[in-house]
Predict the 3D structure of the following.
Amino acid sequence: MSKMYVVGIGPGAYEQMTGKAIRALQESDVIIGYTVYVDLVKEYFPDKEFMTTPMKKEVDRCVLAFKEAQKGKNVSMICSGDAGVYGMAGLMYEVGASYPDVEIEIIPGVTAALGGASVLGAPLIHDFCLISLSDLLTPWEKIETRLLCASQADFVICLYNPSSHKRHDYLQKACDLMLRYKSPETVCGIVSNIAREGEEYQIMTLKELRDTQVDMFTTVFIGNSQTKELSGKMVTPRGYKGV
């Protein structure tokens, strides 16, 4: 039976890939992915066959991967971050139902929430949630509800896909919603180009975040009512006694 790996390659840097992910890619004959992600790993696996599809061709990419596996090849479908967090794992199982002769194995990776948190300090020490601001596959009304409920429950909130050319004001809209339940002085942080060239971070208040311009390569962190800035880092206490 052919093997299909669905591999989370982490935020970008080779050294932030897991050992298991590296082994899966080494054992693959073909590596398939979105063009940007393939470019991140290509130099480290020069003897492999690479195939790419552009954005919004996810189903075509999955079908391509299974057809290659049916030729008797071991195939890796790569995703940035973790394959099971806004990645391709679910779609691969859906498409894979038509290819029962191909075995699927999911290889986890470091998602942007974890990679970005390590840059900012320790913002996710207590309960937190991930919310994508992309309304490409999720209605904005549903995103609004999730932002309001998470804010009312005092979660630390990590935002993926906070902005794009078509959604340049979505972060501002999200901040306005969160400000209904969170203080304007809530400690927040942003990290751009996590584990890639040009990585940088900034800590600010929720009020300041509202008027901050970000791009699609930025991950946004909004603290809870206990989150604070310590020595230039964003820290959410767990609540240990004696500290």
